[in-house]
Amino acid sequence: MRKILTAAVTVALGLSLAACGADDTPSAAAGADATIGVGSLYEPQNLDNTGGGGQGVTEALNGNVYEGLFRLTDDGKTENLLATDYTVSGDGLTYTFKLRTGVTFHSGKALTAADAKYSLEKVIAPDSKSARKSSFGPVSGITAPDDSTLVVTLKTRSISFVYNLSYVWIVNSQNQSPTTTADGTGPYRFTEWKRGSTLSLARFDGYWGTRASNKEVVFHYFTDASALNNALLTNQIDIITSQQSPDALSQFTGNPEYKVNDGASTTKLLLAFNDRVAPFDNVKVRKAVYSAVDRKKLLESIWGTYGKLIGSMVPPKDPWFEDLAETNPYDVELAKRLLTEAGHGNGFSFTLDTPNYDPHPTVATFLKSELAKVGITVNINVITADEWYTKVFQKRDFTATLQEHVNDRDVVWYGNPDFYWGYRNPQVTQWVTQAEQATTADEQTSLLKQVNRQIAEDAASVWLYLYPQIVVASADLSGYPVNGLNSQFYVYGITKQEG
Amino acid sequence: MVRYLVRRGGLLVASLLFASVALFLLLRVLPGDPANALLTVDATPEQIEAARRQVGSDRPLPEQFVTWLGQLVRLDLGRSFVSTLPVGPEITDRLAVTVPLALTAFALAIVIAVPVGYLCARWSRTWYGATISALSQLGIAVPVFWVGMLLVFVFALRLRVFPSGGFPRAGWADPGAALTALTLPVLTVALVMSASLIRYVRSATLDVLHSDYLRTARALGASSAEAMWRHGLRNAAGPVVSILGIELATTFLGTVVVESVFALPGLGSMLVKGIMQHDYPVIQGVLFVSTVTVLVIGFLADLAQRLLDPRLRRASSGRSR
Amino acid sequence: MNLLTVDMLTISGTDGRALVSELSFALSPGERLGLIGESGSGKSLTALAVLGLLPAGLRASGSIRLQPAGGEPTEVVGAADRTLRRLRGRVATVVFQEPLTALDPLMRIGNQVGWAIRRTRGLRGSALRDAVLSALAEVGLDDRIARAYPHEVSGGQRQRAAIAAAVACRPALLIADEPTTALDVTVQADVLALLDRLVADRGMALLFISHDLAVVARVAERVLVLAQGVAVESGTVTEVVTAPDHPVTRALLSSARQLDAALDGRQP
Amino acid sequence: MTRRRRSLVAGAVLVGLLGAVALLSLLWTPFAVSDTSGGRLAPPGGAHLLGTDRLGRDLATQLMVGARIALLTGLGAVAIGGTLGLAAGLAAGFAQRWLDDGIAATLDVVIAFPTLLLAMLVVAARGASLGSAVLALGLAMSAVVARLTRILVKRVLALDFVTAARTSGTSWPRVVAEHVLPNVWPTLVVNLALQFGLAVLAEASLSYLGLGPPPPNQSWGRMLQEAQSTVLTAPAGLVAPGLALVVLVVGANLVADGLREVADPLAGRAS
Predict the structure, then answer these.
(1) Does the model's ipTM exceed the 0.90 cut?
(2) What's the CATH number for D3-21+59-270?
(3) Could you tell me which residue ranges the ABC transmembrane type-1 domain spans (chain B) (predicted)?
(4) Among candidates B48, B164, B272 on the partner chain, residue whose Cβ is nearest the Cβ of A394
């Protein structure tokens, strides 16, 4: 009888169907024909960055499959790419670009000025959902006099026009389905996208520039941060584009098999007030809330030693950055004094619309206990990302909310009075417009520094902290970008040593 | 028999149509807009309107319903609002993960549950019979995702024997990697499912062991094994088959949580994403496919039961379920 | 030589309480014995004990010896299932009370009879088929019944089929555990007559268990009365009927008498 | 007798224990719920019996508070599922041919639809909250209860003494009250006890997927999800909530087993 029992149990545990292959690293090959496994939480919505492709499509295709007239390098400089040279008219209203010759799309079609014209028009078209559309407001006319020249005329001067062009993908004008296929001029061809799983790029041998240093790159997408980290721990992927789970870091720091890179990030976490609505239409109340929160403790509790404190919207990588972390210092007494001066001596309560994904619920819980110290009661209302767009972003039906802002140079949004946080300061609006029409970069920088200082003075929002930009990679990988500006992730430089 | 098939088939289609219409209305009532998935933090109102046009959520409800029904009749599940990819092919990709996962786990659960359940019944008076029954009691109380997490912790992170998740890019073109990727998920689902199956097999076996016809067979010279084999098995199979039908049906979409733990691109996670983004074609496509599958499984389980038990065959009309 | 010798048989339950205590009786080949008593008197348990088919949890002690004509005696109490298996069917078998549950609901009646014959007489193929049909014919059932399922025939027909299966094994001893109690009165008489004829034709010994003295009187010569698992009285049918000395027997008799008087006005 | 009592008592003790913990957490917990003073991911032992989570909150406190959500969801879902299910089941039981088939077909579709996904639709509609979770789980349960009730009602209606009562003109409500309910009620209660366990597990899964009751509600499911990313450095976080879930659900199932034998002794097996 005993024999049968043990037999039955071993049958149950004997994994008859398991082909226990050893943990097969995805790319046995190394060197120039390696396949690089990249892990990320940001799967594209679709493949067209003017059709709502989202942050994921920039990460996967920007600079890898698609290229612009100019390229934004990993440390924030704008350099020529498909444009070899350009001239600007005296009044700064006419730009003439010289296109690189001998460049072909992956489909074999030659790159012409017509494609460049088509690509720019696509970004500013009525139904374009490109995040950069508004910054091309001043563009009045686009012409392609010949195959290798593009002329753009502006209504008003726009000093960051060339910088903004680094976001415009030069696409093949004949590609009818940009959301599902990709035909660019970059070092990789788009080969396959299995939604919810992987997106694969293969080296394009007909590339005009220097060849990519690896044969194939596969983006593996995860919805859960721990699953992403586990994948790296078990060598299914070689690198994580941006580490979102702070606590998982301890598994990699101090582990010789992995390298943790702390780069410069542009992602800010905001407690955004609705500046139109009481009590947050009152500067003193906003500054009181700002000073009541121990931001240092919040940052440490979530990110430990990583991340930075910031006092305003501008991240360190922007040319007009100044460290304003102490403009609204953590000072509970100051907060209480400000509250009494604003007539809220015995405190008040407000509803905080909190997106339901990390880290917002945890931050909300922290803010609730911090603000309780100054008599302010926070009602946490958890909403889905989708609801955030409808309730907060479009209807502006909120008192305060939590949200992260990913892009660089987005301090300019404080110059737009009917943006969702409703900050109205005509002086700031004027500085922002002047900065864009500045003739020199220095003029632009000094104007935007004033904007940055002013919104900090007014505590237009509470800038809680700057996310760290952590790229974790296996030790035998090199040549990968660490800053990932505006969620770009150039993979053509990545090499994988043997072993 | 044919009359039964026609009636049952008719019921199948009716409940399917009912489910689709109810689903369409329910989704439209939900707050939020599929267009939001296409927007970024700094979209202008004009861009929001453009997104709604692309998605079609700006058109009046009846019009949306007519276009949708038209597509459904032509079995064209339409295109995802968000990815603009056709929903059909993506579902088949996802089925290539969910179906093998569900079926293998189901088979493994049966392979575990039938012998263990049988032994548990045969030794119901002994201590090891009682321990198995207690273990199965524990088994049905354990959350699936917890089992998954523990298996990942032990086998993937600590022992590095299995991948911690994901499905190979080549899919089933590389069967070795695909099987290895599915091992822990299959084990997770199978262990929990076998726990509840053991209890059903045990109670069905006990019913048979206490039956008079088994005693008659032994009185006519059959050994207990032969009596069980010849008479017991078929009689125990009836109730167990109906439970298996329900269990397989719920496993089909029920692996959502396991797909999340193991980051598997299955049908469940596709539906979760669809719901989060109000991607109506994806939601309707997945639910259409899963409802069809579940009702077909129920139909087959019913059929199997009829074949097994002649008593059901005669009263084919008014049989009360 | 006795076909069946039961000596000091005691059957106790899980809690040690004796359901049958120190029962002794004997049965020679061809002899018929009636075992009667109220329900719960342990008569059915005794029948099961003879074949070693006591339900799990019950333990038998004392001795039960079965000795087929010209065969070795076998001690049933404590015997391994393998040895008892050779006795069941060939030497002794049982016909149970509830025909609806006694037959496998999912198997055709012909097959169930067939498996019994195949196992005990080793017949195969057409010989087996003929044996089945003749066994059924003997109990008055035609070949349509052979293809039918138990739920498709009446209670009486089901019991006849069960008897056919038992008798077809050609046992030396047939034990009938209240075979007619579950049938309605009209069918009861036919089945009793059938049993009587079959046992006589084959010279089988019969151990007939019932709570109804009138029924036992029709098929058995000697009677053993049980109360709470103890044998309180035994003797020929006429002795027990005419001069019952134990109160239990008298109670059984009076209830039987009313039934008989009502039935056919025979002298009580 | 004793074996039947044993599983009922054992189950009641387990569920009662967790009920007491939940009630106690209303009055006292080792640390304040939102007290983040403890060190991050401290191992069990010392001031923090079970250690701390990544925010430095005491794990034992979170566990106690989590018991509230588990019990509230379970009981709430059983309340909604029971009443709705019973009503629908009775209606189906008494309904005529095509209406009966219609209801049965609808129930099949709802049951074929996994609880978790039904919950997601409700959460997508009403937003993630304790109310949404309870409503969703209650609705899903009501379909299962309705199907069971329908079968039981049909079986009772077929009984002779009930047909006799109906033909002798007793009014429907009296038939239901006197004959149907007493017979249906015992099996239903057993099923509801089982459904309680399933609802608790479903809530844990919902919270694990980030769809359960949001903070400041504390749910075991979410504790497991949060502990998952720090499993290598702080495995305790993964073990405690899981065990708590198992204890509660095993307790509920034991109560169900005990009730089943008490309510329907005939069905009791010598097991």
Answers:
(1) no
(2) 1.10.3720.10
(3) 95-301
(4) B48
